[in-house]
Design a protein that fits this description.
With about 500 residues, the protein is an alpha+beta fold. The protein has nine helices and 23 strands. The N and C termini lie far apart (about 185 Å). About 25% of the residues are buried.
């Protein structure tokens, strides 16, 4: 009889104890195996512990199909470090990204509407890069550096007008006269807006009054008069400052009509050759200016004579007076041909008339004397002494005058006090003020003496137009230290 050998049960295997089986295919595995030698399954992942395996008396039978379709997990490969080439690639991408972002941030700021306008205004003042800042709004005006210089010529000498131009362009995009429009005109570097000032041309006309007169524009001859009523319309020009001149010989005398003109419209400019004589009346000692240039000083009567001065259609005069308080100027007055042989007043705005100043100072010290005599600080019209001062009782100069008058009132050695005033001069001050020079004669009646003590003091008060709620037309802003000019005794 033949004996058939059967595989011993798992627990009867050599070595004893429970056998280990692959949880995927059921084949026996060793405790030291990491992967199943039959199917390659990761035994550590399958059991969740590298030191423990699933134990069973008998593995479950599996069909060949189940064995073929059972999923397997490939072993994880350790992460490899980046190569130098890969590092350089990613560093380059990072640097490029930062550069692109920086480029757009810079361009958005540099080419913004406000930043471009700031640079344009600086260029107008300096005369640089004007062809980049301006564009023509008309086909018959081709811009160039020389054609744009009249803009720089005017605004470099008129900073306030340049500030106004900037404000107009910033707020509305258009100058007040309509000659300049600030707008976008294309792009910079494909991405950023390009802002420029679009110029509208002007077409001025010039006239002169004698055949043969030579007319020049910025020292370049543009015409010779062919009649005694010659007219010429000029070609398209950029608004700005130009020098127009007409020159000829009349009655054996060489005459020139020459002046700088701020041309901003298509109007007519008269270059007639004639002379003008005018008497200017202003404050004595004032400097007189003709077309912005000092030509002399008014005499002690406030008079200055202009004699046989070649007349221009843009001829203007003003006066300026400088004192320790500052500089005051009169409004500018244009001289017309009809002013020849006449008088022209150059008055300082808000300056106090000498007669008004005399009444004003007299009433002020009338109130001060009443306070010294009977403790009543009003003048004969009932106006309080504080009404004569800017800010009333808060004015420190009012407080000083009141303190002085009260001191006289409290002095038992005084029988009486007299205050007589006299305005000796009125001069213009800065910002519409007046410098009023006056004297006060103080007469002290002494109770123990048979004479009066008399003192004269001189003051200079800064006076300005009063506020609407004041009873006075003018008020004292301040006055300087009193200067004693006389001190004497007079018998009763």
């Amino acid at each position: 009889m033949h004996l058939t050998h059967y595989a011993a049960p798992a627990n009867d295997q050599p070595g004893g104890g429970a056998a280990n089986f692959c949880p995927n295919c059921g084949q026996p595995v060793s405790a030291t195996d990491t992967f199943c030698p039959n199917c390659g399954a990761n035994l550590q992942v399958a059991t969740g512990d590298t030191n423990q395996f699933q134990t069973s008396q008998q593995p479950q039978a599996t069909t060949p199909t189940q064995q073929r379709t059972a999923p397997t997990r490939p072993a994880r490969k350790p992460r490899q470090p980046w190569s130098k080439k890969k590092k350089r690639l990613w560093w380059g991408i990072g640097v490029a990204a930062v550069a692109v972002i920086g480029f757009f941030v810079w361009g958005s700021n540099h080419y913004s509407r406000a930043a471009t306008l700031d640079r344009t205004i600086n260029d107008i003042k300096s005369g640089k890069h004007l062809t980049d800042d301006f564009t023509s709004a008309s086909s018959d005006l081709t811009l160039s550096k020389s054609k744009l210089l009249p803009i720089n010529r005017y605004y470099s000498d008129h900073s306030q007008d340049l500030s106004k131009l900037k404000a107009d362009l910033d707020n509305s995009g258009r100058s007040s006269d309509g000659d300049f429009v600030y707008e976008q005109n294309g792009h910079h570097l494909l991405f950023f807006p390009k802002y420029q000032i679009s110029v509208s041309p002007v077409y001025p006309t010039v006239t002169t009054n004698h055949t043969g007169n030579v007319i020049t524009l910025d020292n370049h001859k543009i015409a010779t008069a062919t009649s005694d009523s010659f007219t010429k319309k000029l070609s398209a020009m950029v608004p700005g400052e130009y020098h127009l001149q007409s020159q000829g010989k009349i009655g054996g005398h060489n005459l020139t009509n020459s002046s700088d003109y701020h041309i901003t419209s298509s109007k007519t400019y008269d270059l007639e050759l004639t002379t003008i004589s005018v008497e200017l009346d202003t404050v004595a000692g004032s400097n007189v200016y003709l077309n912005g240039k000092k030509i002399g000083t008014a005499d002690s009567t406030g008079t200055y004579q202009i004699k046989n001065e070649p007349w221009t259609s843009d001829m203007s005069v003003y006066a300026a007076y400088t004192s320790s308080a500052g500089k005051a100027t009169t409004p500018t007055t244009k001289l017309k041909k009809d002013d020849d042989g006449s008088y022209v007043d150059l008055d300082y705005k808000d300056m106090m008339d000498k007669g008004d100043a005399d009444d004003f100072i007299s009433n002020l010290f009338e109130a001060a004397q009443n306070l010294a005599d009977n403790d009543d600080s009003t003048d004969d019209d009932g106006d309080d002494m504080s009404d004569f001062f800017v800010n009333g009782t808060s004015n420190s100069y009012y407080a000083d005058l009141r303190k002085m008058a009260k001191g006289y009132n409290d002095n038992d050695n005084l029988d009486a006090i007299g205050m007589d005033t006299d305005v000796t001069d009125v001069k213009p001050g800065p910002n519409g003020t007046s410098e009023v020079v006056f004297t006060v004669e103080y007469t002290f009646g002494l109770s123990d003496y048979d004479y009066d003590h008399v003192q004269d003091f001189q003051y200079t008060a800064t006076v300005q137009p009063a506020s609407d709620d004041s009873s006075q037309s003018y008020q004292i802003l301040k006055y300087g230290h009193a200067v004693k000019t006389s001190d004497r005794h007079e018998d009763d």
